Amino acid sequence: MMTAQLSYDAKKKSVLFLLAAAVVVWIIVDAATGGDEHWARVGVRLPLLLTGSGDGWPVTGGFILNVLLSIASMAVATALGTIMGIATLAQRAVIRLPAFLVMNFLRNSPWLVLLFAMLYIIPYEIRVFGMVIPFPPFMKAVIGLALPTAANFSEVIRGAVQSIHSGQWEAARSLGYSTRQIYMHVILPQAFRRMIPGWMNLYALLMIATALATVTGIQDVLTILNTSLAMESERALVYFYLTVLFMFFAYCYPIAVFARRLERAVKGDNI
Amino acid sequence: MTHPEALIEIKDIHKSFGKFNVLNGIDLTVRKGEAVCIIGPSGSGKSTILRCMNGLMPIDRGTIRVGQHQVHSLKTEKAMRPLRHQVAMVFQQYNLFPHKTALENVMMAPIQVLGHDRAEVEDRARKLLDKVRLGHKADSYPGQLSGGQQQRVAIARALAMQPDVILFDEVTAALDPETVKDVLFNIRELVEEGLTCVLVTHEMGFAREVSHHVCFTDHGKIVEDAPPAEFFANPRDPRTREFLGQVL
Ligand SMILES: Nc1ncnc2c1ncn2[C@@H]1O[C@H](COP(=O)(O)OP(=O)(O)O)[C@@H](O)[C@H]1O
Ligand SMILES: [Mg+2]
């Protein structure tokens, strides 16, 4: 009777609360029956997981490296995706069609395969005019993750631009605006608002995908789990993995929630 | 027959979307300072005629002259722009820019398209907002205005371009009855000041009082074109008679 009268939101909240409570109860019970010893190991090694150094300083890897990797990839992906998105909207087919091809290819490639491909395609260093530009694994990971993210972002841009009512184009054209001016002054300022939620969702996905970058050999949190902590007992490793899962969750979930809230706010001012 | 003072001359234009012929030979002349109303059933091609006049839509055949512009020979968007500085358009759905205030909506194009001086444009824009009696709403966003108010801002935006002609496409069709008369009041004022106007409308009373001649479109043709007194009192074409019989 009571639940029938609760709103969907209230129901969702109570389910989430029950789940969280169940997890807490499980942790307490488990700790009381011997788990505390494993949690203690996790506590001791936490600085290593977070920073890649046992003392927590200097930062050489760990979860913070995942965060840095995600930020660097997102920066590259945003720039690349903007170019790709605009190219797929171009009037001239010689620009639009290749952009479409590349975008769809990247969007439909498994991220892990792209990462491996970058590992082998990009050389260790490039010589330009006698200068040697090295390509460390971190750079390869940045590019490998940025490519599919860029392709997805370009689709976000395209969707936002195409969601602008055609009357806006008509009005601007009838006022004598050029196509470039219409994008600059009319379409992009409106589309920009509608892109932000998609961009944030994409960032949360990218952050999760940084775990894949362990294949490039960088000292990210997963590499550290697999190497430095290999001597921990098998039982303790379960606790370590749970901890890492929680780190990703704690970082990404608020972003996703915030994005969803923005999305709802933006939907309100559609015309 | 040429009219030296004819501002718009449309001769035998045809337009089709795929197999569907929207315009089947339209002829229309609008002289400087005239108000011409186009009425006709929905889907008969009224909006298409207006869109062809300012090059929003290319035509398949025929000629359109607006001022010194041969519209049918303008092939690129770029070539259309000088034409569009002279021909403004007001739409049924207002199409204001929702991310800009009313004042900014009016000021944008003269500054960004015509390159006019900002201070001078702001002065002009405020006067135009006063003219449509919305001076007090200058800083409101379109979303904060009623339909009628948005449409009056759209009229001010069109006027800010200092055009030779304004095309009105069913500008009161989406409005509440009470606000319709405010918008019509503003348009009537423009006509009385001698601005050339082409109006697609369903407001028969307005068409009768304001226009210099009235055209009736049916299936992509203008089947009747007469001064309003004659048009409403003695329609010659049976299709006009039938239509007027339904709406009056
Ligand atoms: N861009 C377009 N593509 C295909 N058909 C169109 C397009 N624009 C208009 N039409 C069709 O042309 C016909 C005439 O349209 P329109 O000029 O808008 O009529 P009216 O304004 O008299 O109601 C309609 O049947 C409409 O469906
Ligand atoms: Mg129409």
TrEMBL record, chain A:
<feature type="domain" description="ABC transmembrane type-1">
    <location>
        <begin position="63"/>
        <end position="250"/>
    </location>
</feature>
<keyword id="KW-0472">Membrane</keyword>
<protein>
    <submittedName>
        <fullName>Polar amino acid transport system permease protein</fullName>
    </submittedName>
</protein>
<dbReference type="InterPro" id="IPR000515">
    <property type="entry name" value="MetI-like"/>
</dbReference>
<feature type="transmembrane region" description="Helical">
    <location>
        <begin position="63"/>
        <end position="87"/>
    </location>
</feature>
<dbReference type="InterPro" id="IPR010065">
    <property type="entry name" value="AA_ABC_transptr_permease_3TM"/>
</dbReference>
<dbReference type="GO" id="GO:0022857">
    <property type="term" value="F:transmembrane transporter activity"/>
</dbReference>
<dbReference type="GO" id="GO:0006865">
    <property type="term" value="P:amino acid transport"/>
</dbReference>
<feature type="transmembrane region" description="Helical">
    <location>
        <begin position="128"/>
        <end position="148"/>
    </location>
</feature>
<keyword id="KW-0812">Transmembrane</keyword>
<keyword id="KW-0029">Amino-acid transport</keyword>
<feature type="transmembrane region" description="Helical">
    <location>
        <begin position="200"/>
        <end position="218"/>
    </location>
</feature>
<feature type="transmembrane region" description="Helical">
    <location>
        <begin position="99"/>
        <end position="122"/>
    </location>
</feature>
<dbReference type="InterPro" id="IPR043429">
    <property type="entry name" value="ArtM/GltK/GlnP/TcyL/YhdX-like"/>
</dbReference>
<dbReference type="InterPro" id="IPR035906">
    <property type="entry name" value="MetI-like_sf"/>
</dbReference>
<keyword id="KW-1133">Transmembrane helix</keyword>
<dbReference type="GO" id="GO:0043190">
    <property type="term" value="C:ATP-binding cassette (ABC) transporter complex"/>
</dbReference>
<keyword id="KW-1003">Cell membrane</keyword>
<keyword id="KW-0813">Transport</keyword>
<comment type="similarity">
    <text>Belongs to the binding-protein-dependent transport system permease family. HisMQ subfamily.</text>
</comment>
<feature type="transmembrane region" description="Helical">
    <location>
        <begin position="238"/>
        <end position="259"/>
    </location>
</feature>
<dbReference type="Pfam" id="PF00528">
    <property type="entry name" value="BPD_transp_1"/>
</dbReference>
UniProtKB/TrEMBL annotation, chain B:
<dbReference type="InterPro" id="IPR030679">
    <property type="entry name" value="ABC_ATPase_HisP-typ"/>
</dbReference>
<keyword id="KW-0472">Membrane</keyword>
<keyword id="KW-0029">Amino-acid transport</keyword>
<keyword id="KW-0067">ATP-binding</keyword>
<dbReference type="GO" id="GO:0015424">
    <property type="term" value="F:ABC-type amino acid transporter activity"/>
</dbReference>
<keyword id="KW-0813">Transport</keyword>
<dbReference type="GO" id="GO:0016887">
    <property type="term" value="F:ATP hydrolysis activity"/>
</dbReference>
<dbReference type="InterPro" id="IPR003593">
    <property type="entry name" value="AAA+_ATPase"/>
</dbReference>
<dbReference type="Pfam" id="PF00005">
    <property type="entry name" value="ABC_tran"/>
</dbReference>
<keyword id="KW-1003">Cell membrane</keyword>
<dbReference type="InterPro" id="IPR017871">
    <property type="entry name" value="ABC_transporter-like_CS"/>
</dbReference>
<feature type="domain" description="ABC transporter">
    <location>
        <begin position="8"/>
        <end position="244"/>
    </location>
</feature>
<dbReference type="InterPro" id="IPR050086">
    <property type="entry name" value="MetN_ABC_transporter-like"/>
</dbReference>
<protein>
    <submittedName>
        <fullName>Polar amino acid transport system ATP-binding protein</fullName>
    </submittedName>
</protein>
<dbReference type="InterPro" id="IPR003439">
    <property type="entry name" value="ABC_transporter-like_ATP-bd"/>
</dbReference>
<keyword id="KW-0547">Nucleotide-binding</keyword>
<comment type="similarity">
    <text>Belongs to the ABC transporter superfamily.</text>
</comment>
<dbReference type="GO" id="GO:0005886">
    <property type="term" value="C:plasma membrane"/>
</dbReference>
<dbReference type="GO" id="GO:0005524">
    <property type="term" value="F:ATP binding"/>
</dbReference>
<dbReference type="InterPro" id="IPR027417">
    <property type="entry name" value="P-loop_NTPase"/>
</dbReference>
